[in-house]
Amino acid sequence: MKRIAVFPGSFDPFTKGHEDIVRRGLKLFDEIVIAIGYNSQKANRYFEIKYMEEKINQTFQGTPEVSVLVYNELTAQISDKLGASHILRGLRNTTDFEYENSISQVNRDLNADLETVFLITSPELAALNSSIIREVHRYGGNVDKYLPYDL
């Protein structure tokens, strides 16, 4: 049986930290679906979803075990539709854990067969945060070293 994980997020933008979680996750899973979701907490995206989908696909070109999709439903629902047994998430710090733990409990309640696997962010990437990267970019700063693709 294929071990499929969904790596959900708004990915606005998708960073080297996200890429690191996916590449390390491939040691645990046969397939990882990067699921770009519409976050109801975030009214407007900085980068268009279609653009980010293209950039993530470009990042994993030549890696057939990784696919990208855009979704607008509960993560537990899309995981079930994809036959995914796991949700993959990265943790930078204890604040991330508190937030992600609550979400994983609800996902488990919605789909009892769905397990969340947390990977601790690699130390050199722990400071990366999409919000900070957006702010640096918005004001003309160079964000190339934080992203696995060219903007």
- Tell me the strand percentage band: 15-25%
Overall pLDDT score: 95
Low-confidence stretches: none
CATH homologous superfamily (4th level) name: HUPs
Helix content: 25-40%
CATH fold-level topology = Rossmann fold
Number of helices: 5
Largest sheet geometry: 5 strands, parallel
CATH class value: Alpha Beta
CATH architecture: 3-Layer(aba) Sandwich
Number of domains: 1
Radius of gyration: 15 Å
Written description of the protein model:
The protein has 151 residues and is of the alpha/beta class. The chain has one domain (4-143): Rossmann fold (3-Layer(aba) Sandwich), CATH 3.40.50.620. Helix content is 36%, strand content 21%. It has helices at 16-25, 49-59, 75-82, 94-110, 130-138; strands at residues 4-9, 31-37, 66-71, 86-91, 115-120. It has a five-stranded parallel sheet with strand order 3-2-1-4-5, sandwiched between helices. The longest helix is centred in the last third of the chain and has 17 residues, at 94-110. It is globular and about 45 Å long. Its EC number is 2.7.7.3. GO terms for molecular function: ATP binding; pantetheine-phosphate adenylyltransferase activity. Homohexamer. Pfam families: CTP_transf_like (PF01467). Belongs to the bacterial CoaD family.
What are the salient characteristics of this protein?
single chain, 151 residues, alpha/beta, Rossmann fold, Rossmann-like_a/b/a_fold, nucleotide-binding, EC 2.7.7.3
Summarize the structure.
This protein has 151 residues and is α/β, with parallel strands linked by helices. The chain is 36% helix and 21% strand.
